[in-house]
Specification:
The protein contains 9 helices and 13 strands. By secondary structure, the protein is of the alpha/beta class. The longest helix is centred in the middle third of the chain and has 15 residues. The chain starts with a strand and ends with a helix.
């Protein structure tokens, strides 16, 4: 998944970005109101982690702008304001959740996972399509209950596909979810990772299907006709 982190404090930003990258997500980091608005104008995100106090404006203005444009991307607000009124303001402005600084990064990761699950319409802690299961917390993948060794990028790609079974993702959509702005990866990278996934999951009844000229989808056994 691709996540936007809006945080102007260097050490906090580095730690938050590192936590999400360790989870296997692609992360764009912006330190200002203006930079964040520029990123949101050209890129869709699975999650926005938003600091309230920015050097050139308020994070609440970014949040209000998103909701005014009817963009439903989950937003997790980070704030140093511990007063109840401030937290109520965040939620009423359109935040899906909030964390008061300083926070434990395990809680940050858990809240992010919950928001990502909710955005897919599921409250389940694991993803399952046919005989393939993925645990977003442990980043563990199993095939018919047996562990499958995948790289971080392979897991990230599989997670995107499994989050929306039978949906067709174009190469550009998958590329956007796996890499940030700074990456020079091209569409061939998606072909490479799809090929690796198919090889490692060759015994699965679940199928990763290519639709020529359109993209890729994951299909449970019944849908794939296997």
């Amino acid at each position: 998944m691709r996540i936007l982190v809006v945080e102007d404090t260097e050490d906090v930003g580095e730690a938050v970005v590192g936590a999400f990258e360790h989870m296997g997500h692609a992360v764009d980091w912006r330190r200002t109101h203006a930079g964040s608005m520029d990123a949101l104008a050209v890129q869709d995100y699975a999650l926005v982690v938003l600091d309230v106090n920015l050097p050139d404006g308020s994070g609440f203005d970014i949040l209000a702008s998103l909701r005014a444009r009817r963009i439903e991307t989950p937003v997790l607000v980070l704030t140093a304001r511990a007063l109840v009124d401030d937290r109520v303001d965040a939620l009423d402005t359109g935040a899906d959740d909030y964390l008061v600084k300083p926070f434990d990064f395990r809680e940050l990761e858990a809240r992010a996972r919950a928001l990502l699950r909710r955005s897919k319409g599921s409250a389940l802690a694991t993803l399952a399509v046919g005989d393939i299961t993925l645990d977003p917390k442990s980043r563990a993948v199993t095939l018919s209950g047996d562990p499958v060794e995948l790289t971080r990028r392979e897991i990230a790609l599989l997670e995107v596909l499994m989050g929306h079974p039978e949906r067709v993702f174009s190469k550009s959509e998958l590329l956007d979810q796996l890499y940030g702005f700074e990456s020079e990866a091209g569409p061939n990278a998606i072909e490479l990772y799809i090929g690796r996934l198919r090889k490692k999951l060759a015994d699965a009844e679940t199928q990763i299907r290519t639709l020529r000229g359109m993209g890729y989808q994951i299909l449970p056994p019944k849908a794939s006709g296997r």
